[in-house]
Amino acid sequence: MQRPEPSQFAHLWGLDSACVFLNHGSFGATPLAVREEQQRWQNRLENEPVHFFEELMPTFLQDTREALATFLHCQSEDLALVENATTGVNTILRSLEFQEGDEILVPDHAYQACRNTIDYVANRWNAKVNIVKIPFPIEDKSIVLQNILDCVTERTVLAMIDTVTSPTGLRMPFEEITNELESRDIEVLLDAAHGIGMVPLSLDELGASYTTSNCHKWLCAPKGTAFLHVRKDKQEKIHPLTISHGMTFPLGDTTRFRHEFDWTGTRDVTGHCSIPMAIDFLASHVEGGWPAIMRRNHELAIIGRNILCESLGIAPPCPDDMITCIATLPLPSSNSSGGIPLHEPDPLHRELKEKFGIQIPVWSWPSPEGRYIRISAQLYNSEEQYVYLSQALKELL
Asked: Nearest CA to 131 among 113, 98, 104, 156?
């Protein structure tokens, strides 16, 4: 089979032309111009590091927080810049104190790294992890909300909720979930690793206690860029994982939250400095800007999913309104019994890459049980790439 062409936007990225890249969801992909922007910042830093860190950096990072605040409809002083969403989740969970018997609620579709952090913290404080079973395939998003509320008890103090689940690619009704739980004085930690640039986020209106999201995924910023949003009334108890000078520096005209997170030691902040340009760059290449980008990727993900469902003879596992820019499908006649552990590469993943040049995740998942394949849809992808994938799967399965 002849390998398909990507979309007309592919030249912005410089991805390997021999690879049919359908896995933006794992680590993102940074456009060439944004990579060049970061290099310019790195050159500026290294030309005079002391001047950069001690005098220039605070203003540059404030510019980044303001750009993010405009995009996220929140206040810039409530944002901290962190390396990735897993760091954000760890920052919150390892700052909080729990009482013995307190319950932390988490759906079984949670990202494993973040679930590991919950288990670690719960064991440390003798708290209980309350796992919410969410079916997949699923008929309606209301099932998610109801199953979560059914698991709330008088001991529930915190819930970690995804915007979009990593293993199953479901858009959670996180707005409704957050409203219901926060109204019951249950703190919500929103794991929006798949968030900014994928779904509209209005953080002040949303009202979650804590939100963290990767900028290197759907916003297409450089790797190692993410944000943590902490509601003002929660900031006093939240501290960075690395305690540094900010703990004791005079406050001046800022807050202790700002001081602690702005400086945790010498690190490469050039990726974060590049975020304003990354936001503007992609928006300038699509008429309608980011709303149009998110809409286009959403529609392409549904097209790709439907192509695969028809080819494999399976029903769509969720309604269209639970799809964003990624979509997971259970592979036909497969389950996790005797399947490939998550930490080992699935043979189908390797065959797709080696024989057809397709980069796409394939994994077995214990709960919900199954063997899955997940597609992504970014500006550089084309409908023909999903047709090509469907043909490859028919040959290999």
From this structure: 104
